[in-house]
Design a protein that fits this description.
single chain, about 120 residues, mainly alpha, 2 domains, 4 helices, about 95% helix
């Protein structure tokens, strides 16, 4: 029976399954440690109103900066698209422009559906 398992590789599969379980336990433990650290950090921040306000301001500033970066990227994309369309021959500009608008409408629709 043991020889059959060696030949069929089922022992190897059992060891792999066992290792996968061990990985799951390690991952769960890491999550528990993270949760404890988050709770500790939250308690320290909540105990100091000045620190809490500073953290809140920093997070707000961070997200505003991310939003501005996204807006800048959108503007750059729009400018690059307009430039690309202007470089096309006149007879293709309208057709390609409509295709680009259609593509952006679909992508924005998908993004909005996911966001909402």
């Amino acid at each position: 029976m043991a020889i059959e398992r060696l030949l069929t590789g089922s022992i190897r599969d059992q060891v792999k399954d066992l290792m996968a379980t061990e990985d799951l336990v390690i991952e769960a433990f890491r999550d528990l440690v993270k949760d404890e650290l988050k709770a500790h950090i939250r308690n320290v921040v909540d105990e100091d109103p000045e620190l809490k306000a500073e953290v809140k301001e920093a997070v707000s500033y961070y997200f505003h900066t991310k939003a501005r970066t996204l807006y800048a990227e959108l503007k750059a994309t729009r400018a690059a698209t307009r430039l690309g369309l202007r470089l096309l021959p006149d007879d293709l500009q309208g057709e390609v422009g409509q295709a680009v608008v259609s593509l952006f409408e679909k992508e924005l629709g998908t993004l909005l559906e996911k966001a909402l």
